Each structure stands twice: as C-alpha cells, then as structure tokens.
Amino acid sequence: MSETHLIGIDMEIQEFRITAYDRSGNKVLGSKAEFDQYSIDDWVRALRDASVFLPKGRNIVTAVGTSGTIVPVDKYGTPVFEPQWYFETAPEQATRLRKLEIANDLPNRRLLLSASSPIPKILALREQNPDRFEEIEWILSPTTWLLYRLHMQNGERWRDIETDWNNALKFGADISTTSPQWYEPVFDTLDLSLDILPEITAPGSWIGHAESQLASEMGLRDAEIYHGLTDGNASALAAGSIQSGDCSIICGTSSVIKYASQEIDADNSLYFHRHPIQGYLASAAFDTGYILRWFCENVLDTSLSSGLKLAQSTNAGDEPRVFIQGDRSPFFNPDVGTTILDFWPEDKESPEETRGRLVRGFATGIALSENTYFDLLENQFDNLNTVHLISGGKSRGQGPFTWWNTLRASIWEQEVIKMEPRTSAGALIPTALEASIYPDVKKASDTLLHSHGPIPADESIHSLYEEERTEFKENWETINHLYKMIRDRRDS
C-alpha cells in the first residue's frame, strides 16, 4: 500500500518552509530556503531550494502566506508588477477612499481599509502605471499564486482561478453573507473590474494536480493541490481554534487572539474572518512582545531573555503598572503610547533589581492586557473553552519564557494548554477533510496538532492579581481618555 503525505508550504516574509506529515501526524520531512529580495524570481529560486522528495504515493499539498500582499500577474501567471507586500502602503489612495460615501458602509461588512490594504495599493498601481496595469489578468494573494503556479503547466493560460475566503477578505470580500463574495459596490465606485479577481471558495477546496515544471523541480509532480489559508488563520487552527468556543492566543511580537464563534459580533475591538471550517473567527491583535523586547534592548541594554530572568527574580506585586499602547487594539487610538505608573526609585535597590522590576511590570502589563480580551469574549459570546497558547520567538517557550507563560495562566484565570507551533499542520486540517484523509474535524485536529499539556497556574500569583485585573482595565480606560483629551486640546 502506497504512503500518503500531507505537505504544507509556509510562505514567510524572507523564508519558505515545506513540511511533510504522514497520516498519523508525524513530521517525516522538512526543508526551508531563505531569500533576500521580494521578487517572484527569488520566490521561485527559494521554492526550488526548499524542494522535498518523498517516497512514491499520494501527496496532498496546500500553502499559507501573508495576508494583504498582492501578486499582479498576466494571463500566463507571469508577474506584471513585483509583489506588493502587506507592509507596503498607498496612503494617498487610502485617504481618498475614506472620504467616499461608500466607506461608511464598510464597517458593517467587516471590511478593513487602511493604507496597507490591497485596494489602495491596486489603485496606486493603476494610477502610476496605467499602461502596464492593462496587462494584468489576475490580482492574487501569494498563497493562491503559488498553488496555481504548481498546478498550471508552463505556457498554459490561467483560467477559472479561485481563491480561498481567508485570503480574499482584505481584498474586499464580504464575509457577512451566507457565501463570501466580493463587495461589488466598492469596486463599482472605484471603476475596478471584478474580472481581475478570482472567484471565492472555501479553504481546502480542490484545485487540481501539480503539473508544472516548478512542481517537478520541487519533488511535487502529480501531487494533489488544495486551496490554503492566510498565515494568521493557519496559526489559529494550529493553536487550537477549531470548533465554537475554542480560543487561542499566539504570543510573539504581537498578541494575536482568535476565538471560534457562530456569529459576527459588533464590538469594535474585534475583527472577523470566516472560519476555515465553520462559523467565524473573532480576532484581535496588538503589539506586546515587540514593545518589551524594544524596551529591554534599547533602554536596559539587555536581551529579552535576560530581562525576563531579572523579572522572574522580582516579587509579585513589587512591579510598576505598565499599560501597553492601544494604537491597534483595543482603543485604536494612534496617540496612546505605553504608560508606566507607580514606579518609585529605591535607594537600596541594585541596578539588576530595578531592571527586574521594570521588566516584570511590562510582562505583567502584557498579561493583564491580554486578559481584557478573555473578559470581552466571555461577555459577548455564550462560551469560552480552554485557552490554547503558542509562545512565539526562537525560544518556543523555554527558560524564562516558561515563567512568563505561568504568569499569564495565573493572571488569566483560565485553563491554558501549551500548543506546538505547527502552522502548516493547521492549514492542512481543511485540506485533509476535503481529501477524506480523516472522517471528521476532531480526528483531523487530534492527529495533526500537538499539545505540550496544561500550563499550571500559580494560585498565590492569581490571588494577588485577582482584584487588579478589574482595576487595570478601569485605569487603562482612564489613560485612553486622558490621551484623547490631550489630543483634543492640542488640535484646538
């Protein structure tokens, strides 16, 4: 009997990772390749370098990529412009868009519009290069481009292209409808033809077999190709946000919270994706780990790991109160910066003790900030199951990061499960279901996802911060109000 392999391609910012799993969820092969330039030629070179060659059998492939990056190609899938990355901006076009009457309806459709959104960048390409823009046949996400690049034979015209609804969201998809579709009033207002955008389908849907020369060079010839996900949603599945009530938090440079819900809620602190399997993903993201790392490196002249070691030796309750900036979430106030309160210099304190108190203040403030979302989810939805945690960074939760995870679990008052970071495995869940590898969602997730077990809470720490959880939220609201008052006074 021939073997079956589930293969996930993870398209990161400067690196491609390919991971193959067997039917039991064991990793059997992994490869990666880096690239320095953000061009299609560099992508193809890196994909060739990251090739995998598996025993003959049934190979099933999907991919994940960054959301909000656009790949404009001609009728043969050749780039007309190089990829416009999610972090690149078109501020002039975004400002004009926000002034249009149609912009008032976008929040109701859960469409986000910023200078880094795909639509302003598409408009900028059309305005700055009108003749070349006419050569565009398709505007795709990196995920969709890669999967069809593997599927299509060289020189074959790209027809009947589809894209998954997770990657379609930032391009202007309305997920509030029964079946996600492009929000046509926006494109009509901007005189943008929907012909350059693919049809929208479910993640994990069938595309075809890998028939291109690139697929052969990567060791994927004749593999089955299925639609993928954005990296954020793949990570959410990998972290355990599978069925209604499941909640995950991925703690790296940002804290990214995902909650599997059956409906869309109106709270402005949350944005929504259509869940890759069923329902929706209520989401929030705000800068946390990045701020602490910046503070350690630029103010204390030490590493994040060393800073957390100092914090670990500080007594709970001795730290200053740190309120993480709310420019992204929950306040969306560009004027709110990080605020440190109750910091009293101690004459008898060593420099290490002072640094430890400061870092512990940040680590505690981040945990308390994250906790506000668990309170929000419990208030907005009927149930909140166990919280699944993935710690970002190279440490993957070792050493002082384990201490920080324990601090989090103690403050949150939630059962917390530590998950192995398997982004590609998360993306493979809807694919494996469509390919009939597993009979149901539970079997697929139990097989492909790996848990490192519960993170025990420290009861003494929990009781110490129990009252402060409420005070923290109230004080943070007050700080936000003060920042608004300062802005209004400055602008008047």
CATH class assignment of the largest domain: Alpha Beta
How many distinct helices? 16
Main sheet summary: 7 strands, mixed
Measured between the Cα atoms of the first and last residue, the distance is: 76 Å
Q: Indicate the proportion of strand residues.
A: 15-25%
Mean pLDDT: 90
Number of domains: 2
CATH topology of the largest domain: Nucleotidyltransferase, domain 5
Structural features:
alpha/beta; single chain; 492 residues; seven-stranded mixed sheet; 38% helix; Nucleotidyltransferase, domain 5; 2 domains
What is this entry, summarized?
The protein has 492 residues and is of the alpha/beta class. It has helices at 40-49, 91-98, 118-128, 130-133, 142-151, 165-172, 184-189, 213-217, 231-239, 289-298, 304-312, 351-380, 400-412, 423-434, 441-448, 459-491; strands spanning 3-11, 15-21, 27-34, 57-65, 71-73, 138-140, 162-164, 173-174, 181-182, 199-201, 206-209, 224-226, 229-230, 247-251, 254-261, 271-274, 280-287, 321-323, 339-341, 387-391, 416-419, 451-454. The strands form 6 sheets. Strands 1, 2, 3, 4, 11, 12 and 13 form a 7-stranded mixed β-sheet that branches. Strands 16-17-15-14-20-21-22 form a 7-stranded mixed β-sheet, with helices on both faces. Strands 5-6 form a two-stranded antiparallel sheet.
Q: What do you see in this structure?
A:
The protein has 492 residues and is α/β, with parallel strands linked by helices. The protein folds into 2 domains: 3-227, ATPase, nucleotide binding domain (Nucleotidyltransferase, domain 5, 2-Layer Sandwich); 245-492, Nucleotidyltransferase, domain 5 (2-Layer Sandwich). The chain has helices spanning 40-49, 91-98, 118-128, 130-133, 142-151, 165-172, 184-189, 213-217, 231-239, 289-298, 304-312, 351-380, 400-412, 423-434, 441-448, 459-491; strands spanning 3-11, 15-21, 27-34, 57-65, 71-73, 138-140, 162-164, 173-174, 181-182, 199-201, 206-209, 224-226, 229-230, 247-251, 254-261, 271-274, 280-287, 321-323, 339-341, 387-391, 416-419, 451-454. The strands form 6 sheets. Strands 1, 2, 3, 4, 11, 12 and 13 form a 7-stranded mixed β-sheet that branches. β20, α13 (400-412) and β21 (416-419) form a beta-alpha-beta unit. α11 crosses α13 (400-412) and α14 (423-434) packs antiparallel against α15. The longest helix is centred in the last third of the chain and has 33 residues, at 459-491. The protein is globular, with a radius of gyration of 23 Å.
